[in-house]
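Lecture notes, unit on binding sites. The following record was shown on slide 14. It pairs a sequence with magnesium ion.
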Amino acid sequence: PTGDKRNFNSNNNATNQPQRLINADQKRRKIEQQRRSLPIASVEKRLVEEVWKNDTLIIVGETGSGKTTQLPQYLYNGGFCQNGGIIGITQPRRVAAVTVAKRVAEERCVELGQQVGYSIRFEDVTSTSTRIKYMTDGLLLREALLDPKLSRYSVIVVDEAHERTVQTDVLLGLLKDVQKKRSQNSNGASGNYDHVKKDNNAKEKSNEVRKLNPLKLIIMSASLDARGFSEYFGGAKAVHVMGRQFPVDILYTAQPETDCLDAALVTIFQIHMEEGPGDILVFLSGQEEIESIEGLVRENLKKLPEANQKLLIYPLFSSLPSEKQMKVFTPAPVGFRKVILATNIAETSVTIPGVKYVIDPGLVKVRSYSPDSGIESLIVVKTSKAQALQRSGRAGREGPGKCYRLYPESRFEGLDDSTVPEIKRCNLSNVILQLSALGVDDIIGFDFMEKPDRMAVIRSLELLYLLGALTDEKKLSYPIGHQMARLPLEPNDSKALILASQFDCLEEMLIVVSMLSVESIFYVPRDKLEESRTVIKSFSSPEGDHLTLVNVYRASIEFLEKNKTENGNEKAEKNLRKWCKDNFINNRSLKHARDIYNQILENVERMGLKISSCGDDMLPLRRCLAASYFLNAALKQPDGTYRVLANGQIAEIHPTSVLRRSKPECIIFYNLVQTTRNYVRNVTRIDYLWLAELAPQCYALKDN
Ligand code: ADP
Ligand code: MG
């Protein structure tokens, strides 16, 4: 502490202040210095000028150069919020929206949710005073439903556009249209320097001025090729922000790895034991993988001599609660090393200071849709070259670094140059539903940057039609289509909720949908497989996984409520954590599911759906599942595998399912996962005859 004080002796005002204030001041100055040293800081003035001059601007800059955190602040200071207009910044990922908003609030010394805020599905941290608003691209699309001209926004920044998520692509098309509509409204005066002055003088006419203002649109991308975006926006200007990159040594394995988790684990310890200071960033494909490595690292760490145990583990994935997400940015104490276990989030969306070593198994989990089968699945695929380069680049931000690619060099040469945009490989029914709700009926004719596959569009339209969301004229049906578009869920899930209110099991379906919105409710350490099976059995329903999830949820709520009355809220939450641990339940996921439950409950209440429970008789729930997820029905084959009725695909029941042994004749499943084999996950037993009864639009004709 004496050291700290000495630093501040030069600051006259601060000498008599309490320690806390001195620290706050010190922190502020450090942040200021960090901000000034970012590559983007040297072009602040030029960027603001360019935005005034151009209604659409493309900004390309290396990851970590300061685009996401700084540009919105430059625009704020540059006068773009003068008449109460909001600067909206969209992100493909929730985590990025949350962590960046927190960082920017901190940089500006404001309370999060005031001047700077964020809004993501199921979580809105903004207020009427919010001017810099980070959000997911999907959320802005939903806002467009209520406010088609996005009139509250003066600037929209579409960040991470190189990711080309389906929501980003739809948003780009939509924003182009909004821009057109808003400039038709204005009297032709596009942005230029006069704007600043005009706006200053026109306080009393502010509403009018705002109405006339065109929408400023900024596309930000980490990929150096801006041509595609520029062409799409009629030759829009592109500005390049120079980055700073130190050399990164790329190391490959001699042989292909058979067990990537094991290879990653070995490499983590190899670096930890043999290399100099610097944090390690490991790219993994999802929460499950991250949590299983987290456990393995902890176990192995205990076996090391105490002096070598100074390794701190930080997971980073989208469904992690946000307090935990922020922890990853805390620098490691002196003598300690951090290892960050992250999904693709850390590739370009968030930059964690201190990383010197990157471990890249070369894999990424993506959505995949084949129009033939009409079923979307999650698959783990090889990254593209561009992704591999982005990942290795993360090691060289603050000094020379090393990247360990867990595959042989020959494989790198064979990788695709860049990733196929998601719109080319996902189920489009959600997009179509949203666009229909916005009044766009002709999906094929919509001005996409890259057109989706015709067959995929037709298949997705078909699904919406089968769900009753579209009429014969491909218009949104009333009330079902409209209700479905209003719910922030995939069409199948929305339909399940709407039907559940008729089947008198909406409470249970809400639980199912919430629990399925989070990844892995059960958490099973590798070494406790047998023990966990016995414990988990106490929740399991012979009818399947959906009902098992309902049992877990109900048991946890019952435990929590009882504890609250006995011990108070805080103690109860703590006890629940212990309860989860004892029952091999993932506390994080469960809490997240509870939040989602409450949010969707609010939604369906507002829609006026009848909320009732089927109590202990789960038959209505199973029938309702069959009526909603009828496309995901499968029949047992003589060899014990299952044939998906809709397309003949063959799959097995996932080993984590409670039905993996009993193998009923007919099932419906929630998702299809492809690894080395096809697996169906979250499976429930149904009666084959229900399909014809409850989904005649799909099954009755075929069978007669
Ligand atoms: P870009 O968008 O160009 O990739 P960012 O604006 O995300 O760059 O990041 C700029 C800098 O801010 C990086 O050095 C990053 O480490 C830092 N940064 C971002 N978020 C945080 C945070 N929550 N805590 C500490 N530093 C952060
Ligand atoms: Mg960024």
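Take-home: The first helix runs from residue 2 to 7.
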